[in-house]
């Protein structure tokens, strides 16, 4: 099963685009005016972003995105959130807003479910300091039936690619990692 899941995930990931280049979905894109900012870590972030149009389980099928501050030009709004645009001039550890890779943990030992983040995740700092854009996607686990986890992670990556006009980074460079069942799903 593990080899089949890896094969299917690797060869069918695609961009989610039809032959005409358009994505057919009712799913909203990431709101460029709804970013939080962690000044201590210099990271813009959002959590609770649904990556599927009709979540089977909203506690899992959402994601968080954490972006190095240098990759955005931001304006603080009256509600305390930030409206952002991509800054193409800055670099972090040799990466620019056009070349930065995405990194996504697949922390699902034994194919367990992975809860989506509901707040800032301080463990991302090493990644954002290295110039990576950190995507933390929740996913259903073995209790939801196979291949729910792989399907969810695949949908999360497609959602990131669906938002390539909004997010900095190179959406063709998404790296996943995990141990045990997470490594197999990765």
Characterize the structure shown.
With 186 residues, the protein is of the alpha+beta class. The chain is 19% helix and 24% strand. It contains four helices and ten strands; from the N terminus they run αββββββββαβαβα. It has helices at residues 2-12, 125-129, 148-162, 181-185, and strands at 36-38, 43-50, 62-68, 72-76, 82-86, 91-92, 95-96, 102-105, 133-137, 174-177. The strands form three sheets. It has a six-stranded mixed beta sheet. Strands 4-5 form a two-stranded antiparallel sheet. The two termini are 13 Å apart.
How would you briefly describe this protein structure?
With 186 residues, the chain is α+β, with helices and mostly antiparallel strands.
List the helices and strands in order: HEEEEEEEEHEHEH
Based on secondary structure, the structural category is: alpha+beta
Rg over CA atoms: 16 Å
Largest sheet: 6 strands, mixed
- Choose one word for the global shape: globular
| Stretches with pLDDT under 50, minimum 5 residues | 1-20
Overall pLDDT, averaged? 88
The total beta strand count reads 10
Beta-strand portion reads 15-25%
What distance separates the N and C termini?
13 Å
* Lateral strand order in the biggest sheet: 1-2-3-9-8-10
Number of helices: 4
Helix content: 10-25%
